[in-house]
Amino acid sequence: MANSNAQAQIELHRALAPRYAYRYGFEFSRLFQEDWHAEMISHAPPGSRAVLDIGCGTGFFLAELCQRLPGAVGLDISHDMLLVSEQYVPGARLVTGDAEQLPFQDGAFDVVFCKGSLHHTRDHVGFLSNCRRTLRAGGALVMSEPCNDNPLIRLARFVLYRKSPHFDEGDQGFTRRGIVGLCEQAGLRVERVKKYGFLAYVFAGFPDHLGVLKHVPGNAWITRAFLRIDRVVCALPGLSLLGFHVVVVARRA
Ligand SMILES: C[S@@+](CC[C@H](N)C(=O)[O-])C[C@H]1O[C@@H](n2cnc3c(N)ncnc32)[C@H](O)[C@@H]1O
User: Fold this and answer.
1) Is the CB of 207 within 6 Å of ligand 1?
2) Given Cys at both, which of 64, 73, 182, 245 links 196, Cβ 3.0 to 4.6 Å?
3) CATH topology of domain 4-252
4) Is the pLDDT of residue 214 over 50?
């Protein structure tokens, strides 16, 4: 964990850990996150037993994974984030470690999840190659990462990642084509790519950044409506450009 980005991410997420607990503290924001998690879990190969969540952070997704796929392991570079996980997944197997040097045996997992962690690292192909190595033959990597296909979203992220203290300047989003290329360079076979998140992502996903819905009566109902709209938007070829994230399912051949 000697590299400077790893150190910067540890420092960054030390300060962010309490914000994540707050982020997941509202019914409407939990509804959104649970929908996102259900989308990711739906791509796990049937019968998956050995499960890893890379960059599990404060463990909200890991808690759901453990309910559906008992024994899931969480790894994060930030010990401070993992300490918050105790709140959501008491007793889970949590590992403090760097995704760029995964401390697991080859072929140890049926499925590796990664929700929003790749873009915090610098050696993307190295990260993905490590994921591939820890998957059994035929195992799947399911990840969701910020998508910059839309020029306006790309610009907004460019500014946010540079100006906000909650990001590192070197963090970056991906284009659909770019992230597929990275997977292929790492020797993964990309099976599915789809967009995720538009209105619900913006208004319900991050009440610590954008808190408008907190003050609106019926915010859970509004979030459910946004989720329905988002599903339609992200499924339509032209409109899917509006998606804020890209979900990629890739297999170890
Ligand atoms: C955007 S947060 C997402 C956390 C969690 N997956 C969620 O959805 O709430 C990114 C997480 O990646 C972790 N991270 C960043 N770089 C990492 C690395 N090289 N290895 C492992 N985890 C890393 C951070 O500490 C942080 O917890």
Assistant:
1) no
2) 245
3) Rossmann fold (3.40.50)
4) yes
